[in-house]
Amino acid sequence: MTQKLRGRAATASLFVTLGLLLAACSGSGVDQAATSTEDTAATAECGEVGIAMHAWVGYTATANVLTEIAKKEFGCTVNQVELAEAGVTYDAMEAGSV
Question: Are residues 59 and 40 part of one domain?
Fold first, then answer.
């Protein structure tokens, strides 16, 4: 590549980078939409939620954290359904209980 082409490529690269930077920093409407969504979610009623509880330690811990957040943050009524086998889980999902 000649010196002249390298200079043009560097200049073009600089303008593209600046354009992307300006585009990324000018999204003021994004924060407004996120705020209105949070307000709507906080005031909306959650209803009833079913969570399948398996005997796996990591899964149980995660499901309990999810249960507490759903209750305290969203006002949900959470029903934890203890299930032992994978086949039973699929049947419960099909029935709509979890």
Answer: no
